[in-house]
Amino acid sequence: MKDKNQLIGFMLMGLVLFGFMWYNSNQMEKQAEYQRINDSIQAVLDAKNAKIAKEEQLKKEAEEKAQETDSLNALFVARQGQAGTTTIENELLKVVVSNKGGQIESVTLKDETYKNQEGGQVCLFDKGDSDFKMLLEGKSNNIVSTDFFFNPKDVKDNAVTMSLPIAKGSIDVTYSLKPNCYLLDMTIQAKGVDGFFSTKTKTLDIVWNEKMKQQEKGWDFENRYSTITYRDTENDTHELSSMGGDEEETEFDAP
User: CB of 181 within 8 A of CB of 174?
Assistant: First the structure.
């Protein structure tokens, strides 16, 4: 009788184990089918989104191409310039400004107190090291300053105004150096462009990416203690940490 009960117990255990394996296999098949359906739906959505993105990109390129050839477009003249540079300097600094984007192309220290590793003048950054752009939203045309050519005017030894022509007006960016000073002043002024921008446009976005040159022989030490210090319009000084990766967002009101 005892052997019979043991046999029945083993049979029941086998049935339970078999049932569990069957149920688990069935669930895995359902899960695989569910995943296959989801993957198919996602593939269709990805293809649809890619098609929409491509169509939007082609539309944008066509609009930009039309604007380039439309002589009545407010930014037509600004697209027709040629690459060139203007140099301003004082006793301590030499600054080269590019008319493509109206941005600073290079800065070199003239002060003989400072030497690079080869004994020459220290170049803080050179062509290709800096990317400075202004972003403005217009009614029918958006401005990314690096896409356009600025015209240098009011050129002096220590100052220049880079002017972006917009219809009958302009956006003027003036760079100036004071005597015996390392500070470079920059002012931005819009003239005669009221109809170009929406009345809601109150801000100017600036994107500045900088590739810092290695000046010291000890790269690790220089990288560890390099920092950014800036002063806002209320003359408050802010410094980002030299250790780690600080991020700070600040809005500036024009004085």
Answer: no
Structure tokens at 140: 């029918």
What are the angstrom distances between the C-alpha of 223 and each of 49, 58, 121, 148, 247?
42, 42, 21, 34, 17
Output the CA–CA distances (angstroms, integers) from residue 35 to 23, 44, 156, 244, 245, in the order listed: 18, 14, 69, 42, 40
For residue 57, report the phi and psi dihedrals to the nearest 5 degrees.
Answer: -65, -45
Q: Are 88 and 160 in contact (CB under 8 A)?
A: yes
DSSP labels for 140-181?
Answer: S-EEEGGGSBPEEES--SSEEEEEEEETTEEEEEEEEE-TT-
- With a pLDDT cut of 70, the percent of the chain lying above it is 80
pTM of the shown model: 0.65
SS (H, E, C) 37-99: HHHHHHHHHHHHHHHHHHHHHHHHHHHHHHHHHCCCCCCCHHHCCCCCEEEEECCCEEEEEEC
CA–CA separation, 3 vs 66, rounded Å? 93
Question: pLDDT tens, 175-218?
Answer: 999 999 999 999 999 888 888 887 777 788 888 888 877 777 77
Cα of 131 vs its chain's centroid, Å: 8
